[in-house]
Amino acid sequence: MKRAFAASAVVFALSGCASIFNGSTQAVTIRSAPDGAGVAVSNRAGEKIHTGIAPVTLTLKRGAGYFRAETYTVLLTKEGFADKELTIVGTVSGWYIGNILIGGLIGMLAVDPVTGGMYTFPDSLTGTLEPQAAKTSSAGPTLTIVSTDSLTPEQLKGARLLVAGK
């Protein structure tokens, strides 16, 4: 019994608190207002890691290397609305500080920074899309309406001939 306790104490001291409690990935829910926007997520390196439709829950890697939190760029797109870009940034988890309290020097300097367990993301984020004015096309014929009061006598004569079909 004492050996088992001692062994588990050694394993716990040699591992990182944040890695134990947080893990190296986290589920993050991405929503759009209104629902149904296209979602494109890229990591710090610019690699597209997901495309889909909001709402969506993704499992994201917390770390991007030794002592580097991963950062994600989320692009929301929907017809009739302006595109919206959001950023997901990893922040230091409170569990990482637990290494100081239990004396987990290896966890603090090696395990948690390597696994990314020392970082956390918001559980969810929502992007509100702004309506976009309808686009007009310059291609094709146009119609201009004018008052006959603003026409010259020559234009008025031409308009009468056009209406009469002559």
Outline of this structure?
The protein is α+β, with helices and mostly antiparallel strands. Helices cover 31% and strands 29% of the residues.
Which helices and strands occur, and which strands form pairs?
Elements lengths: L1 H13 L2 H6 L2 E9 L4 E5 L5 E6 L2 E6 L9 E7 L6 E6 L1 E2 L1 H9 L2 H11 L3 E2 L3 E5 L24 H12 L2
Parallel strand pairs: 1-9
Antiparallel strand pairs: 1-4, 2-3, 2-5, 5-6, 7-8
Helix pairs in contact: 3-4
Explain what you see.
The strands form three sheets. The chain has a four-stranded antiparallel β-sheet, with no helix packed on it. The chain has a three-stranded mixed β-sheet with strand order 4-1-9, with no helix packed on it. It is rod-shaped and about 110 Å long. Helix content is 31%, strand content 29%. It is built from five helices and nine strands, in the order ααβββββββααββα. A hairpin with a 6-residue loop joins β5 (71-77) and β6 (84-89). α3 (94-102) runs antiparallel to α4. With 166 residues, the protein is α+β, with helices and mostly antiparallel strands. The chain has helices spanning 2-14, 17-22, 94-102, 105-115, 153-164, and strands at 25-33, 38-42, 48-53, 56-61, 71-77, 84-89, 91-92, 119-120, 124-128. It has one domain (2-132): Immunoglobulin-like, CATH 2.60.40. 22% of the residues are buried.
